[in-house]
Amino acid sequence: MDAVDALNEIAFWLERELAPTFKVQAFRKAAGIISGVGPDELAARVRDGRLKRTKGIGDRTFEVILQSLDGRVPEYLGGLRSRGAQPLAAGGHELLEMLRGDLHSHSDWSDGGSPVEAMVDAAKLLGREYLALTDHSPNLKIANGLSAERLAQQLDVVRGINAGGNGNFRLLRGIEVDILEGGSLDQSPDMLGRLDVVVASVHSKLRSDKRTMTRRMLGAIADPHTDVLGHCTGRLLQGSRGTRPESEFDAEQVFAACAEHGVAVEINSRPERQDPPDGLIRTALDAGCLFSIDSDAHAPGQLDFLQYGAERAAANGVPAERIITTWPLDRLLEWTRSGPE
């Protein structure tokens, strides 16, 4: 098989397994090094030892390239494929099959690890019909948030990707915009108006008192540009960033506002978040909210995290018709542009 494809597929499966970043990057870096090198030239570099001496090509990646050149599926990739054949989640399989898209993903324009094109390729591989590119807004400097100028540049990239496609997949213009302390959104109304999807999330002062946090969230929900309320409690249950408790807010009031203003409550599929908690999913369901099952992927392999979100939605009795990511693209875009359905 093609050696570049083999290396990138290995990285995909490792990302899906939440492997350490350095391990994933080793395979993506090796793929970048040999990208554009024809098989004959690559074989020549193997024979004369140049490839082995190339910086960024380690023992494992060299083995993968060698076995690919021999016309074999590399053993390391075969093992990953075997593990990947098993579902990530035990339940929610029927709902997962109904999901058409994903409204929360990040690229290397902010704090993601891969180019936009790699995220698109993975989404297509997983059978998605649409994916929203939602890199961070300027206030989140630690995540290299996009200024209005950089966001405008990214929109040109999105336009180019869609123009070069076959019409079976759509990359949506989006943002994960910070909810600022006063409840406003961290991007100009003009730029927000140019987007297909706006996910609004709190990323700072997560330990504010209940009244303050509720007022802050209500301000963002009332903004007509907001389509999805992202990872509403901000909790972390595991992972390299440690743990973090849920933010305190008046859930009944916040979810009633979401239902009133036509803002979907995100079921964030990242395993370290599992946000909202089950009890809050049921509260939002009782309030009449819509939901968006999203991966919050920061790497191509993480786009498959939707399995976790589907499992939790199914376990809490969320009907498919109230999950906007089961909707066809035309219906979704009509909803995001017009407000409450």
User: Might you state the CATH topology name of the largest domain?
Assistant: TIM Barrel
User: Stretches where pLDDT falls below 50 for ≥5 residues?
Assistant: none
**Spatial order of strands in the largest sheet:** 1-2-3-4-5-6-7
- Structural class category: alpha/beta
The amount of helix comes to 40-55%
Tell me the number of strands.
Answer: 7
| Main beta-sheet strand count, sense and barrel state | 7 strands, parallel
**How far apart lie the N and C ends?**
48 Å
Q: Rough shape?
A: elongated
CATH architecture of the largest domain: Alpha-Beta Barrel
Mean pLDDT across residues: 96
Defining key terms:
single chain; alpha/beta; DNA polymerase, domain 1; TIM Barrel; 15 helices; 7 strands
Summarize the structure.
By secondary structure, the protein is of the alpha/beta class. The chain is built from 15 helices and seven strands. The mean pLDDT is 96.
